[in-house]
């Protein structure tokens, strides 16, 4: 019989499974059991449960229930922290619960020690940063909040909002825009309905950035789809201001204040615009209306500013003190009271007031900045520096502290330190306009001191840098004057050419431009600049200064008579009088020399006598030049011994204005005038060995003059051969000299070459009047033609006056009487006058 397989009996399987379960059960369950919690952890867990309940109650509007639950949570977290002082979770819970109760100081006291040991813990940085922020302890709060914001976690979304608000308060528009844009990127969709608030803040940030287009777009986005908002309209008014449309901004705000009579901010802004335009009565109307809306700190602050604008500092103080009554410790109010006290000259009271505010816990940048500035105005410079160094330490990434330190050092004339301060301000904020302006001013002051210490090169470097920073007309004038002082005439002209065209340029820039052009050798352009400067002002003193400058340009242009007239009749300006007194003697000497060139020795002597009356003061070089010119005048008038003595004394010792060969040239001139031609040639030859620049032309002219003088002496002594030789030598130097051609024709006539002589005289008669005289002599003496002689002498007399006019007239009248020759019909007395060429 076949057997089937056996199966185990059920009763035996069950006990086996039970045994297996009893053996395997405990170990399997043990690996999933959490470790037992510490007492601190247990209380943290209970605290978190209470906090969740508190948040739920708060969200449902149950403020009382929420407060109770927050207090319960706070108690539990504090017990947990006491049990385990270094617990991050307990400290974070304390911070969250205390912040929920707005007990900011408790958060700081409990969380800050734990945070010191866990610097990178965001769960601690978040509540601690918020608590410090709420206490307005921004220098401590902002770094923590920036650390939290860097995580880009939606759990800490509100941090971006807080940071943006601080950046707006600190006038950091770029940073505010970045925070607000991160907020919009991270915020949950359920909060999108409140985006209009963020766009409004973005608009304000763009205003700070001076980006009018972006600001307008943000404000319009904030307004879209909502009832008209006064605050948004206020932002649009700010955009109009930014665009330079202040009247339109005022019109907009006037409409807003009419449509929203209960809105305070538009009234305040409108009043501020009125104050800026110095329309104080209209500002007062808005300020009074604002006070009627409510006795708020902003209202009394505005009314105080109005009273201050009305020069009623006592009433302003009263309004500012009301601000502090309403909101004790308000920094703006404290500073305003200090400002009112300063306006009354009560600097010490202002200092005491602000010091008390600091002792009471005031710790804002504005308060410390104002305290330091008041100390500076009271003459307490050391204290001002101490306070402003604190400002710089509180805001190291702002220019404010450096600017205030710069002002302290500027006030005490510490130019090196002030320059360093303002340079540091520019490093922090490269575009800071005030830092550029004051750095330029400090550089200009240091340049003035360096110039006074004969460090002109250093002064010029400072002024070049100052002009690069502050491209204004006054700064160009400072730099231009320094460049003239260092004889950098070309650079001075370039600077003043620009300076005279800058906004606000006056006659002063034109005056210095004239001197720069004159120094650069462009007298005509200088005269134009001086003339224009004189027309830019109606002040007699200023016109006198411009006239004196024009006189100096006229001297260089050869218009010496006009220059002497200007320098003689200066006007009321003491400055112009000083310039004229310094230059008139030199100009008179210049005119004396010019007169000597034309042979007017008497006129030159008169100018030199005028110089003697004016005096040359402590100017030995000019005194020597006067003596030199007098020597030349004496030589011209034939007083040769006096001339030689004067010239020798003038050139002993050698003068800076004289050439090394001037003595030889002067001696040659005196010998020439004495008729000692050979000795004069010897001196001239010695001087010609090393001619100076510009002398070759004069040496050639002097050589020609000696030839002509030798010819004249030889002619007078009857030595026609020598006269002819000398005149031909002179003609070789200047073939077009009509007088030499005429005199050579006289030699030909004396030698019997009458035809050649007559032909030359007839050709030259239009340019050499004495040729007509000689034609008449030839007609009367050689050809005995009385009529032709009378006609020739009549032509000579018609040319004007001369040393022989009286004699020739006598000759003509005698021949007319002898031969009965009448005057032609219609003839008249000579109308023109001309100096006869000897």
Automatic annotation (TrEMBL):
UniProt TPR repeat ranges: 365-398, 399-432
Keyword Metal-binding carried by entry: no
Disordered: annotated segments: 28-47
Signal peptide: 1-30
InterPro entries: CellSynth/LPSAsmb/PSIAsmb, TPR-like_helical_dom_sf, TPR_rpt
Keywords: Repeat, Signal, TPR repeat
Pfam family, one: TPR_16
Keyword Glycoprotein recorded: no
PANTHER family registered for this protein in UniProt: LIPOPOLYSACCHARIDE ASSEMBLY PROTEIN B, TPR REPEAT-CONTAINING PROTEIN PA4667
Stated name of the protein: Tetratricopeptide repeat protein
Organism: Pyxidicoccus parkwayensis
Organism classification: Bacteria, Pseudomonadati, Myxococcota, Myxococcia, Myxococcales
């Amino acid at each position: 019989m076949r057997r089937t397989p056996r199966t185990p009996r059920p009763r035996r399987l069950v006990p086996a499974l039970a045994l297996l379960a009893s053996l395997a059960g405990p170990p399997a369950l043990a690996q999933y059991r959490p470790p037992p919690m510490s007492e601190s952890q247990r209380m943290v867990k209970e605290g978190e449960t209470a906090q969740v309940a508190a948040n739920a109650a708060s969200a449902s509007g149950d403020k009382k229930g929420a407060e109770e639950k927050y207090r319960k949570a706070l108690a539990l977290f504090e017990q947990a922290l006491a049990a385990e002082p270094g617990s991050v979770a307990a400290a974070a819970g304390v911070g969250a619960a205390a912040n929920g109760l707005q007990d900011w100081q408790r958060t700081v006291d409990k969380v800050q020690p734990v945070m010191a040991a866990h610097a990178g813990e965001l769960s601690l940085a978040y509540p601690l940063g918020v608590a410090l922020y709420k206490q307005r302890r921004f220098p401590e709060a902002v770094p923590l909040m920036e650390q939290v914001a860097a995580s880009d976690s939606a759990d800490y979304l509100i941090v971006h909002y807080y940071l943006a608000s601080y950046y707006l308060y600190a006038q950091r528009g770029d940073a505010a825009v970045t925070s607000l844009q991160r907020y919009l990127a991270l915020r949950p969709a359920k909060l999108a309905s409140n985006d209009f608030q963020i766009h409004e803040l973005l608009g304000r940030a763009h205003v700070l950035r001076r980006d009018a287009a972006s600001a307008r777009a943000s404000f319009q986005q904030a307004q879209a789809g909502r009832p008209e908002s006064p605050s948004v309209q206020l932002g649009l008014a700010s955009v109009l201001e930014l665009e330079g449309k202040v009247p339109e901004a005022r019109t907009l705000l006037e409409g807003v204040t009419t449509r929203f009579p209960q809105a305070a901010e538009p009234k305040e802004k409108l009043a501020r615009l009125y104050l800026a335009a110095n329309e104080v009565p209209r500002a007062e109307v808005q300020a009074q209306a604002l006070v009627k809306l409510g006795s708020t700190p902003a209202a009394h602050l505005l009314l105080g500013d109005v009273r201050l604008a009305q020069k009623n500092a006592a009433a302003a103080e009263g309004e500012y003190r009301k601000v502090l009554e309403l909101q004790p410790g308000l920094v703006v109010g404290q500073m305003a009271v200090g400002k009112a006290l300063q306006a009354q000259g009560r600097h010490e009271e202002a200092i005491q007031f602000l010091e008390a505010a600091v002792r009471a816990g005031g710790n804002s940048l504005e308060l410390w900045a104002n305290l330091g500035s008041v100390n500076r105005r009271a003459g307490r410079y050391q204290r001002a520096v101490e306070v402003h160094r604190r400002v710089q330490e509180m805001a190291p990434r702002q220019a404010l502290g450096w600017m205030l330190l710069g002002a302290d050092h500027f006030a005490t004339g510490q130019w090196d330190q002030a320059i360093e301060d303002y340079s540091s301000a520019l490093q922090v904020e490269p575009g800071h306009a005030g830092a550029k302006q004051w750095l330029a001013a400090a550089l200009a002051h240091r340049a003035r001191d360096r110039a006074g210490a004969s460090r002109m090169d250093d002064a010029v470097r400072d002024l070049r840098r100052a002009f690069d920073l502050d491209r204004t007309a006054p700064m160009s004038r400072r730099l231009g004057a320094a460049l003239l002082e260092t004889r950098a005439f070309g650079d001075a002209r370039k600077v003043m050419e620009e300076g005279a065209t800058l906004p606000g340029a006056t006659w002063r820039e034109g005056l210095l431009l004239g001197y720069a052009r004159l120094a650069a050798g462009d007298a005509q352009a200088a005269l134009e600049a001086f003339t224009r400067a004189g027309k830019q002002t109606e002040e007699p003193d200023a016109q006198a200064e411009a006239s004196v400058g024009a006189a100096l340009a006229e001297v260089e242009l050869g218009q010496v008579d006009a220059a002497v007239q200007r320098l003689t009749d200066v006007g009321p300006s003491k400055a112009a009088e000083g310039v004229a007194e310094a230059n008139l003697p030199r100009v008179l000497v210049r005119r004396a020399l010019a007169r000597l060139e034309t042979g007017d020795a008497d006129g030159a002597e008169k100018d030199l006598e005028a110089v003697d009356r004016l005096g040359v003061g402590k100017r030995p070089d000019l005194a020597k030049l006067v003596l030199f010119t007098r020597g030349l005048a004496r030589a011209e008038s034939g007083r040769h011994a006096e001339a030689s003595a004067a010239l020798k004394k003038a050139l002993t010792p050698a003068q800076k204005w004289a050439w090394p060969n001037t003595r030889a040239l002067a001696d040659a001139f005196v010998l020439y005038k004495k008729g000692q031609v050979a000795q004069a040639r010897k001196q001239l030859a010695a001087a010609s060995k090393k001619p100076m620049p510009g002398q070759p032309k004069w040496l050639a002219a002097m050589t020609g003059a000696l030839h002509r003088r030798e010819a004249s002496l030889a002619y007078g002594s009857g030595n026609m051969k020598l006269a002819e030789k000398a005149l031909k030598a002179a003609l070789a130097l200047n073939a077009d000299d009509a007088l030499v051609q005429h005199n050579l024709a006289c030699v030909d006539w004396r030698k019997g070459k009458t035809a050649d002589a007559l032909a030359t005289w007839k050709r030259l008669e239009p340019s050499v009047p004495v040729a007509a005289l000689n034609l008449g002599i030839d007609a009367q003496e050689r050809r005995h033609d009385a009529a032709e002689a009378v006609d020739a002498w009549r032509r000579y007399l018609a040319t004007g006056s001369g040393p022989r006019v009286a004699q020739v007239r006598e000759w003509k009248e005698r021949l007319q009487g002898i031969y009965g020759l009448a005057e032609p019909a219609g003839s008249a007395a000579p109308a023109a006058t001309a100096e006869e060429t000897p």
